[in-house]
Amino acid sequence: MVSKVETFRALHQGRAPGDPLILPGPWDAASARVFADAGFPALATPSAGVAASLGYEDGQTPADEMFAAVARIVRSVDVPVSADVEDGYGLAPKELVDRILETGAVGCNLEDSHEGVLKHPARHADWLAQVRAVAGDRLFVNARVDTFSCGVADPERAVERAALYVAAGADCVYPIEAPLDVLPLLRAGIQGPINVYARPEDPLPKELGELGATRVTFGPGLQRQAAEALAGIARALHDD
Questions:
Q1: Which of 33, 89, 94, 119 could form a disulfide with 124 if both were Cys (CB 3.0 to 4.6 A apart)?
Q2: Whole-number mean pLDDT of the chain?
Q3: Residue 35 and residue 25: Cα distance in Å, rounded?
Q4: Neighbour-count burial of 37, counting CB atoms closer than 10 A to its CB (0-12 exposed, 13-18 middle, 19+ buried)
Q5: How far apart are CA 55 and CA 57, in angstroms?
Q6: What is the pLDDT of residues 35-77, one digit of tens each?
């Protein structure tokens, strides 16, 4: 029987340029069921969205609460779920892997910055290699590259970090907030799958795929759209 992590890993393979894997980001069990019922084959939690659902600012969620929230999302659906666990909460690789696996998640995002400051790339790659060694093939590791979000505009710096992380065993790299015009350069320079963050003003996922995205995630964007829709309903009820 094929495991959920094997299913999730296979979803990233052999994708045509205009057919990226679309991973909606549930922030709680109810939103996860909505996305799964809509037919999406897998989901990927956004740390900012989960934080907002728990009453925290992005990056301020205690580790215990984040893992508990992920576990609730995972058990509410049958499809594979990958979890954004920020920069690992300072946990040692074994404890981090154990706690992710305890939630039932099949994958994780791991950032290479902390509080807006980029980590040393070689040291971060060593840490990722330890995570991979502990996890084996039980987790799909999505290594986030935060150069663009930290103000480093040169795409070569992102490519250099991505190469280190892929060599360390990352299954996918995530150059978050990369400008659209550099996506083809990143695609040409990075081995393996690339995660692209879709903002509301960006093209449709199909076009992002044509620019180089293997998979597309939305961060807290879908949650914000849902909140805007709910606000409209609330205003209408109030006015009535």
A1: 119
A2: 97
A3: 8
A4: exposed
A5: 7
A6: 999 999 999 999 999 999 999 999 999 999 999 999 999 999 9
**Which single residue is written with the structure tokens 């995972």?**
74
Neighbours of 225 (CB within 10 A): 12
User: Structure pTM?
Assistant: 0.96
**% of the chain with per-residue pLDDT over 70:** 100
109-148: string of b/e by CB count within 10 Å (b at 16+)? bbbbbeeeebbebeebbebbbbbbebbeeebbbbbbbbbb
Q: Which two tokens stand for residue 203?
A: 């093209």
List alpha helices for 104-172, DSSP H: 121-135, 155-167
Six-digit token string for 20: 């990226």
State how beta strands 172-175 and 113-114 pair: unpaired
Burial of 181 (0-12, 13-18, 19+ CB in 10 A): exposed
- 221-229: list long-range contacts, CB under 8 Å, 24+ apart: 221/25, 222/24, 222/25, 222/31, 222/49, 223/25, 223/27, 223/31, 223/46, 223/49, 223/52, 223/53, 225/200, 226/31
- Select from 21, 32, 34 the least CA-distant residue to 214: 21
**Residue 41: count of CB within 10 angstroms of its CB:** 14
13 pLDDT band, cuts 50/70/90, is very high
